[in-house]
Structure formats: structure tokens, C-alpha cells
Amino acid sequence: MEELSIKVKIADREYPMKVDAEDEERIRLAGKKINEKIKLYRDQFGIDDKQDLLAMVAFDSLYEKLQAEANSTSTGESAVDKINYLSKLISEVTG
């Protein structure tokens, strides 16, 4: 697996890192999305302090991740319930 040395700019600061070539696009996209959220919060709330902006982005990102995990779990449980129901129907018909 090829490893690349790249720099990702977040909040006007460059962060050098070594990444697998297959992960480069996703890592650059993550940096871009962080910068977009920083700009959104700066414009929306008039906040200029980078630490505050980064904290807000970190909080927002973790909240979105937890919400997606909860939705995924709920969807998984729903699918299991449907499979169990269909299995019961099949058992009733064949049994």
C-alpha cells in the first residue's frame, strides 16, 4: 500500500500527515468540510476565535456521527424485526 505525505489546511493552519493513497481523497474532503463548517459558524454567529469555532465543529461532527449510529441501529433492529416476522409466516405456512 502506497503512503503519501500530504498537508491538510484547517482553520488557516497546515497539518502534515502521512496517509494511504486510497484514503487521500477522503482525508482532503474531511478537511474541506471542516473548513466549510468553520466558515458557516463564523458567518452565522459572528465568532472569530478559532478555538471556539473548532470546538463547535467538533461538537457538531460528533453529534452527527452519534445520530447516524443511532439511525443505523434503529434501521438494523427494524430489519431484524421484519425478518423474524417473515420467518414466522413461513413457519406457519410450511409447519
Task: Walk me through this protein's architecture.
The protein is α+β, with helices and mostly antiparallel strands. It has one domain (3-94). Helix content is 71%, strand content 17%. It has two helices and two strands, in the order ββαα. Helix 1 (24-45) packs across helix 2 (50-94). The mean pLDDT is 91.
The share of residues in helices is over 70%
Total strand segments: 2
**Biggest sheet character:** 2 strands, antiparallel
Strand portion, in percent?
Answer: 15-25%
Quaternary class:
single chain
Q: How big is the Rg?
A: 22 Å
Order of helices and strands: EEHH
Total number of helices: 2
User: How are the strands ordered across the major sheet?
Assistant: 1-2
Distance between the termini: 53 Å
Overall 3D geometry? Answer: elongated
Structural class: alpha+beta
Low-confidence stretches: none
Mean pLDDT: 91
Integer count of domains: 1
